[in-house]
Design brief:
The chain contains four helices and two strands; from the N terminus they run αααββα. With about 80 residues, it is an alpha+beta fold. It has a two-stranded antiparallel ribbon with strand order 1-2. The relative contact order is 0.08.
Length: about 80
């Protein structure tokens, strides 16, 4: 699969990449983010799909896990420009 625009940008702009990594690191360290990750991992383990390489993630919507979704779609939904 070819790199997306964002991946190309961060590959070419080291300063921006490092700033982005720092911001992501701070967000991932928040208690709310840790709890969400732990819930998703637990759900994945219970369903027997943790680490099997199927490309699926436990997905949250409305604060609850509703099932599995492609990892890429799960990351792409929502965010800063959510409408």
């Amino acid at each position: 699969m070819a790199l997306g625009k964002t991946a190309k940008y961060y590959r070419e702009n080291k300063e921006a990449r490092l700033k982005h990594q720092e911001t992501s690191k701070k967000h991932a360290a928040k208690p709310k983010a840790k709890k969400k990750r732990a819930e998703a991992n637990k759900y994945n383990r219970e369903k027997g799909t943790y680490g099997n390489g199927d490309g699926l993630d436990a997905s949250h919507r409305g604060g609850k896990i509703f099932g599995f979704e492609k990892a890429r779609t799960n990351r792409a939904r929502g965010g800063k420009d959510k409408k």
